[in-house]
Amino acid sequence: MDVKSLFRRKDISRGGYGEEISDYGLKRVLGVKDLTLFGIAAIIGAGIFSTIGRAAFNGGPAVSLLFVFVAFACVFTALCYAQFASMISTSGSAYTYTYATLGELFAWAIGWALILEYAVSNMVIAISWSGYFTTMLEGFGLHWPHYLSIGYLSAYEAYKQALSGATDLPSNVLLASETYRTAPVFMGMKVLVNIPAGAIIAILSVLVFVGIKESKVVNNLLVFLKIGIILLVIFAGCFFVKPENWSPFAPNGIQGVLGGVAAVFFSFIGFDSISTTAEECKNPQRDMPRAMLYCLAVCTVLYIGITLVLTGMVNFKELGVDDPLAYVFQKVDMDMIAGIVSVSAVVAITSAILVFQIGQPRIWMTMSRDGLLWPRFGKVHPKYKTPTFATIVAGILVCVPSLFLDMQFVVDLTSVGTFFAFITVCSGVLYLDYKGYSKKAKFKVPYINGQYIVGLLFLAMAAFFLFKMDYKSIIEEKPLLLIFWLTWIGLSIAAYRFRFSLLPTVGILINLYLMTELGWSNWYMFLIWLIIGLIVYFLYGHKKSKLAASNKE
């Protein structure tokens, strides 16, 4: 096997990879407003109703600045996505961009990682949606059976914890344990099925199958409703803000604020889902870059507003709860607003599921057209103009596991692949600069010469950590940081030699650092999935690749 064949690239000037916009039978119905709302739907999901509380509990009111910092950090990656979106009008997100720059093997790895990320993310969101949905029903006086709203593995794990004699177990664990104990038995098995989680995936998959126009209408409605409710919460909460709750502003110092950086970062990463709909945009090269930056700006303002209101209404020490928005309004006897919050959580998470369920089949469709997946994944329905087979498989792949799996198990499968994709997109922009392709981009990442700055930043940070950190504890607790520092050294040398653009380089470093913050379980699961993917690639994709066929001709 020729090693060079592993790094064959799509010609960035042909076939939908340049100024020409290819038409593969999908409907071009999305404008910049629709794309922006897709991005907002993906970014503002369950996180705004739970992550903010935990982050504020650790960092105090200063966590509002953390959202500014994280949004600023995301901009480096978003700018790189935006440049690619202005140059490449083909669906596929990071997979497509990587194929045009770093080559086929890296593109396959990213595409395979995105299959896992989109599927598992929606499993997590669906399980979370089920919890909010049943809580909302309780608020209306309707009781949904517990054994029909929890997966078998979740209930069984809780039951084992209760049997172990552990004390001070959370109330949700005790409830899950009791649900397992009292669940009905059918053919010798406990009946424990998360029906709401599976049902919402099934319903939204049907909507995605029917058409992008219908999905757009539903998503726009949900997002407008979601934004309206969030603004209501912010303005209503302003009347109960006590400025003394903002003092001290950073009670646990910078470490307390940065402690939530990884969790908060995940509140912003949905903007990449916009790029999966490139072939359904009216003017992708103009509208997609704008939409990516617009949705980041809107979501940042909303997150900061919510954080300031939360920490102003109650002391930050009270926010270590799973439902901080509902909690603070219950504290001030505004139960009606608390009820609205529970409804808005269901709306917010529904729109997030919809967007990710739209994105996944389109990545498969693009990989199939390139010959790397079975041709049926690339088929477009003649009437509905959607990737038929890919949408059905994506629905089944997400729906069935969400009925039974434990949420923590699927959470461990997420994260690493997303950062991996972000790093390759930022690296791809450096490649475009090196080859001179960036000059043709309709939107370009602002060029700041990082020849000296990258190295100087490394020396400054190394000097800071030299006096502040215990290296022995770092090596024992976070050995992955060594990879981060070694990569920074390599980038400093490369930046000096090739005059790397500063912004994509910083994007690489930020995403790599956040990868080191993830647990080992995330890495193990990702590596196992990647190995499986490489086996599939060498047995099928490498031989069936359209580029392989064209090279033979």
Automatic annotation (TrEMBL):
Query: Where, per UniProt, does this protein localize?
Result: Membrane
Residue ranges annotated for the Cationic amino acid transporter C-terminal domain, each copy included: 502-545
List the keywords (alphabetical): Membrane, Transmembrane, Transmembrane helix, Transport
The UniProt GO MF terms for this protein read:
amino acid transmembrane transporter activity
Its GO CC terms are: membrane
Q: Which domain of life is it from?
A: Bacteria
The cross-references to Pfam families, in alphabetical order and at most eight, read:
AA_permease_2, AA_permease_C
Q: How does it sit in the membrane?
A: Multi-pass membrane protein
Q: Which residues cross the membrane?
A: 35-57, 63-84, 105-129, 191-210, 222-242, 254-271, 291-316, 336-359, 386-404, 416-434, 446-467, 479-495, 522-540
Q: What is the name attached to this protein's record?
A: Amino acid/polyamine/organocation transporter, APC superfamily
Which species is this record about? Dysgonomonas macrotermitis
